Amino acid sequence: MWRGRCHPAQAVLFVFVFVIAVAAAADDVKRDDVRAPKSQSCDNPFQLVKVKNWVDGEEGRVYNGVTARFGSSLPESAENSDPAPAILPYPIDCCSASTSKLSGSVALCVRGGCDFTTKAAFVQSGGATAMLVINDAEDLFEMVCSNSTEVSISIPVVMITKSAGEALNKSLTSGSRVEILLYAPPRPLVDFSVTFLWLMSVGTIVCGSLWSDLTAPNQSDERYNELCPKESSNGETAKADSDKEIVNIDTKGAIIFVITASTFLVLLFFFMSSWFIWVLIVFFCIGGIEGMHSCIVSLSLRKCQSCGQKTVNLPLFGEVSIFSLVVLLFSVAFAIFWAATRQQSYSWIGQDILGICLMITVLQLARLPNIKVATVLLCCAFVYDVFWVFISPLIFHESVMITVARGDGAGGEAIPMLLRFPRLVDPWGGYDMIGFGDILFPGLLASFAHRFDKDKKKGALSGYFLWLIIGYGVGLIFTYLGLYLMNGHGQPALLYLVPCTLGVTIVLGYVRGELRGLWNYGTDLSSSLEPSELNVFETNSKSVDVMNGAEDLKRREPERGYKV
Q: Which parts pass through the membrane (predicted)?
């Protein structure tokens, strides 16, 4: 399944890293059940809402909310909306007529006790201008109608988070005067943050594929030439790969790998909790530490080979490079700092750095031997991504992949196996993100294409690597185009990336007449060689066979004194 040495911890880490393969826009809103009944009066588009408030005339924090399927819409700017006093009705769940005067005010009702439409009907009959529903959790839930009958709600109905409701409730119960203003600024069609996310994704694949070239010591260094002569044979390359513990994926391993990833995804979906996220965070930090250490050390030693010569003896570890130890301690400190501050607005920087280092390292450890295995792996990943994003709602009533990527049910924690970038011009903030799987699956193919081009001494235009990278970039553009056309609903990125990468490679190979060589590369040495190289190979093979036969003859009949 895996040809090469792969520790169990590495195998588990690989699965966790690849399991998330989705491009999405995080907005902390839980989607309503697709089976929820709709009617002409209960089919409003959901709007994200800004909830401005003033306590005794002093402006407070602006909270976010989301409108219901029913009720009136809100203006897009604060200038077109008027503030109204907030009031706590009695009963607080608004499931019956309030004994408190609601006329001209915004009623704050807690969730539960009855349907949302029932609450809104009682609040509206009391003369309120709007209703805020305080959720029982720190996310926002899109409110729908409980049945398909027509509803007559003409006031805005907005849900806010539990913490926002508690803050407003505290101000009201302390006797302060609270005023509330509601408006719904539209989101921009395109946010420029996807440009940076695109650059990070493409850059990670390019760096991961070219890393061995980027970090190779200077070939002109005499000491390097003496100790590390230029490799010129597949045998020497294979030996170097073995020394680096390269894991070569085969066809069976590719299928089992995707099945295992699906199993982990389902487990995450059903057992998502804060402790489960912490397990992922620990694995992510371990992988990020190893990746950052590897990247820093290899880059540094390329410029300064003498940096790793000073060593120190440590108990249990033996002789260790001082430079490597310092880098390791820095990487550990960096990962711990990120884990401790992961809820801060700047935590995406540390997460992206650790994630990129981890993915570059994974692309050095795992390899696809040929296009045959790449086709099996990427086609399985294609089905995996599409199924868990688009088809899983028909079975589980919500998208398993998107639910796991958002971290629903994790108590405010989020899956770390994502690259994130904040929306710079979006009034709602939030992040655009892409799963590691959407980078690593095409990245394995790109890494293979680079090795193939290098082995066959192909130029940029006559090779496959450049065209594959262009195809990946175009596929990402299609992914984010689909994201915006579908109102920010998470997209199975591999739906667009696999045809634009694997498809481009196969079509190019077919047109150039090299598809057979790509398909069987590495499995049969003679089939991948040019005719001139094949003659040399056959001649060398015959010479080796003659010598082996002679040696065997000498071992079998030493007493007869054969001379060779």
A: 196-214, 254-271, 277-299, 320-340, 346-366, 373-396, 428-449, 461-481, 493-511
The per-residue pLDDT for range 369-412, each reduced to its tens digit, is 999 999 999 999 999 989 998 899 999 888 888 888 777 766 66
**Calpha distance 220→313 (Å, rounded):** 32
Is 385 an active-site residue?
Answer: yes
Residue 438 is among the residues annotated as catalytic for this protein: yes
In a domain, 535, yes or no: no
Same domain, 111 and 164: yes
Catalytic residue among 385, 426, 432, 453: 385
* Same-domain pairing of 461 and 503: yes
H/E segment holding residue 338:
helix 322-340
What is the span of the domain harbouring residue 117?
A: 48-145+152-183
Cα Rg of the chain (Å, integer): 30
Catalytic residue among 93, 352, 438, 453: 438
Same domain, 93 and 211: no
* Residue 107: its H or E element: strand 106-110
Secondary structure of 10-78 in the HEC alphabet? HHHHHHHHHCCCCEEEECCEECCCCCCCCCCCCCCCCCEEEEEEEECCEECCCEEEEECCCCCCCCCCH
Domain check: are 133 and 196 in the same one? no
The CATH number covering residue 107 comes to: 3.50.30.30
| The model's pTM | 0.77
Q: Does residue 503 carry a pLDDT above 70?
A: yes
